[in-house]
Design a protein that fits this description.
The chain is of the alpha+beta class. It folds into 2 domains: 145 residues, no CATH class; 99 residues, Immunoglobulin-like. Helices cover 16% and strands 37% of the residues. The radius of gyration is 26 Å and the shape is elongated.
Amino acid sequence: MAKTIDVGVINTFQAAGADAVILKGEVSLSATTATNNPGVGSIGGVEYASLTSYSKTAYAAGTASVKDIEYNGVALTAGVQNTVTITHNGVTNTFSVISATAWADAEAVVDALVAEIGRYSGSVQYTAAKITTDNLQITLTAAGVANGDFQLSSNTGGAVNEGIPYEAPSGSEDEVNKASVGSAVSGGQYTKYSLVWDKLVSHNAISGLKAYRTVETLIYAEEGHANFGDFETALDAILDATVGAGSAGLDSTDVASLAGSVKAYSGK
C-alpha cells in the first residue's frame, strides 16, 4: 500500500498551465498550500521517470442511497418486539416497537417503526418512510453522504432491496480540509489527482543502503478557477506521457509531446 507523503491544494492557477511543469526531472506543481512538504507553496520531489500510476477523479457531490426492507414475515403477536437495525458512520441504532395487543397487520408495524425512527431525526442522518404496505424505506440524508453508506437489517430477516445505490463524494470542501487543514476555499469543488511513484529512501536496517518505497502524492485542484482548464490540460499531458499506455518513462519523444507544458528538463 502506498504511503501518502504529500498533499497539495491549488485554489488559483496561472494561465497556460504554468503551474504544472517538469523541472529538473521532477513534476513540479505550484500549490496554494502544501502539507508535509518543506517547500511550502509547491509540490516537488515527484520524480518524473519514477511515476508508476496515477488516477484522476473529478468533483462529485455523491449520491444518497435508498434501501427498503420487507416486513411481510413480521410477528403480529402482542408483546413481541419488532425491530430495524441501522448502522451508519460507525454507529449502530436498533429501533423497536411493541404493542400490548396484536398488530392489525404488517403495515401497522411499519407505520410504528417510521414514527419511532422519526423521533430521532435530529441525531441520525437518515429518514424513514413506508412504501407499498409492508416495506420500510430508509433514505440517507444529504448531510450523511460524506459519512458513507448505511447497512440495514430487521428481526424478521426480511430481504433488503436497494432502490438507489450509494456513491461516495469526491473533492468536496470537507474532504480537502481533512487532507490539508483549512486549505479549501468556501464551497470549493476539487479534482483530485493521486500520483503513485517509487521513492529512493534510506534503508533502516543497513547503513548506507537505499531502497525504493512506493509513495503517493495527492493533488486537489479547484475546478471553479478561471485557469483550471489550462492546469488540467498541462498536468494530464505530463502524466499521460509518463505513465500512459505503452510509456516507459521520460524520453525525448515524451518531451516533444509536451510542448507548452514543459518549462525545463535537465535530468538528475
